[in-house]
Amino acid sequence: METDTRVLTTEVKLQRAFVKLLADKGFDHLTVRDLAREAAINRGTFYQHYLDKFDLLTSYENELVGAVQGIFTQYPKPMGKMVPDQRDAFWQLFQYLYHQRALSAALLRCPASKIGPRLKALIVMIVAVPVDGEAAIPQDIAQEIVVQGVLDFIRYWLTRDVVLSPQRAYAIFKVTRTLSPQQLVGDNESFSNNS
């Protein structure tokens, strides 16, 4: 039990150091020595868990992607108009990402991270646009617009100086799914009165 607690403590300290150093130095200038010093662990301890900083980055990406994949598997996909207080996959996603916001934001900001494309692939699974041969917009274009919009919203939400609560972000997200671009940037008084 004591070993598990020490490993967990080391992981927490290492993740905090990783997030701080990404912001301070960027991934390219980050070293294992920096991570060990900031986390107050020795380099040998780091190497017991990871091969190098790239392995650490990949591990954090895998953790986040695995959790998001689990959410999309376990919770229902939103269908049609999103009903208030519906606990769908996106509600759960917003809750999880908020809980992991320091790491999520750090990865989303990091040019070396592949988290954006990996999350985008998962979002494609949940918002897959049905094939309609008579649609005015080709399926691949419609899907790209929707999926990239979801990813951009998440990135913007998590990387702001003041991060909205997951409930507020989800409420905004829900409303924006039904607004035209003109409604979104124009008169959105009805949203502020209803949220």
Which tags fit this structure?
single chain, 195 residues, mainly alpha, 11 helices, 70% helix, 0% strand, elongated
Task: Summarize the topology.
Elements: H1 2-25, H2 32-39, H3 43-49, H4 53-74, H5 89-99, H6 101-109, H7 115-126, H8 139-159, H9 166-176, H10 181-185, H11 189-194
Helix pairs in contact: 1-2, 1-6, 4-5, 4-7, 5-9, 7-8
3D architecture notes:
It is a single chain. This protein is mainly alpha-helical and 195 residues long. It has helices spanning 2-25, 32-39, 43-49, 53-74, 89-99, 101-109, 115-126, 139-159, 166-176, 181-185, 189-194. Helix 4 (53-74) runs antiparallel to helix 5.
Quick structural gist:
The protein has 195 residues and is mainly α.
List SSEs in N-to-C order: HHHHHHHHHHH
Arithmetic mean of pLDDT:
88
Query: What is the structural class?
Result: mainly alpha
Beta-strand percent range:
under 5%
User: How would you sum up the major sheet?
Assistant: none
Low-pLDDT residue intervals, each spanning 5 or more residues: none
Shape call = elongated
